[in-house]
Design a protein that fits this description.
- This protein is mainly α and 269 residues long.
- It has one domain.
- 77% of the residues lie in helices and 3% in strands.
- It has a two-stranded antiparallel sheet.
- The chain is globular.
- The protein starts with a helix and ends in a 5-residue tail after the last helix.
């Protein structure tokens, strides 16, 4: 909040609104990250301080990767502005996928990790110890250095962040093409992801309407990019921020209401 206020005071109200809009967008998209991280940690049986260790390294990697994605994306859009429509297509497709995937919630998430290309590639590249060795990423077995499941978990988290960036970076660049605003807001949101994970680890899995709300946010931003590009309707940044906050607030309200209703229903337990 203080940094966003600093941007507003030094660069103007419009820049400040863009910063806060990008921050809220990235922070809300981080909800999807949390769901995936929970599944990854549970699969690899990473608990307690080890989760904090993996998240710290993951955030450090995200700081570097997001800079590359944001900087390169901004440079491309400055030279080829029509590429913003490609970003819009990514967001609309991600929105559709997010809403459609709700029908497949009964699938085993741990199976999806084992079947993923990232998991298979990493297990082919590294010899993996069957057991954790404290907070070490490598351990010795019969005189050989091998990777521990903790390292494999970290690498899966890092690759997951790259996948998430394909949604979040286009969403942010669809709101502003200023690299400083896009990157700084992105990083502050990523930093917030760590605290949000530990605060809401259990609650996030029960907020059933939050994921579809995030998908609607992606769809809205994608459509906003299209109408702005073709000058069909001018959507002000503050208006976009209000819509995004309204969608997220609705998702949270419906989730909380469902939890309250289920707690009052004796047959739900």
């Amino acid at each position: 909040m203080l940094f966003g206020t600093f941007v507003t005071l030094t660069q103007g109200v419009v820049a400040g609104a863009e910063w806060f809009a990008c921050y809220v967008i990235e922070y809300s998209l981080s909800v999807d990250n949390l769901f995936v991280f929970i599944v990854i940690f549970d699969y690899f049986k990473i608990t307690g301080d080890r989760q904090s260790q993996v998240l710290n390294y993951g955030i450090a990697g995200a700081v570097i990767l997001r800079f590359l994605f944001v900087y390169l994306g901004a440079q491309l859009l400055q030279k080829f502005d029509f590429l913003i429509l490609f970003f819009a297509a990514i967001l609309v497709y991600a929105s559709y996928q997010g809403l459609a995937s709700r029908d497949d919630d009964d699938e085993d998430d741990t199976d999806s990790i084992e079947e993923s290309a990232v998991y298979k590639t990493l297990t082919n590249l590294f010899e993996i110890s069957p057991r954790l060795d404290g907070d070490n990423f490598f351990t010795q077995i019969d005189g050989r250095w091998v990777a521990t499941p903790l390292l494999l978990c970290l690498l899966v988290v890092e690759f997951s962040d790259i996948v998430f960036a394909t949604d979040s970076v286009p969403a942010v660049l669809g709101t502003t093409q200023d690299p400083f605003i896009a990157y700084s807001s992105n990083i502050f949101a990523v930093f917030g992801l760590r605290s949000l994970f530990f605060i809401l680890r259990e609650a996030m899995t029960r907020f059933t309407y939050l994921e579809p709300a995030v998908s609607f946010v992606l769809g809205f931003i994608g459509l906003k990019i299209v109408v702005d590009y073709f000058e069909i309707i001018e959507v002000p940044v503050i208006g976009s921020l209000a819509v995004v906050l309204s969608i997220l607030a609705t998702g949270i309200y419906l989730s909380v209401k469902e939890l309250d209703d289920s707690s009052l229903d004796p047959g739900s337990k």
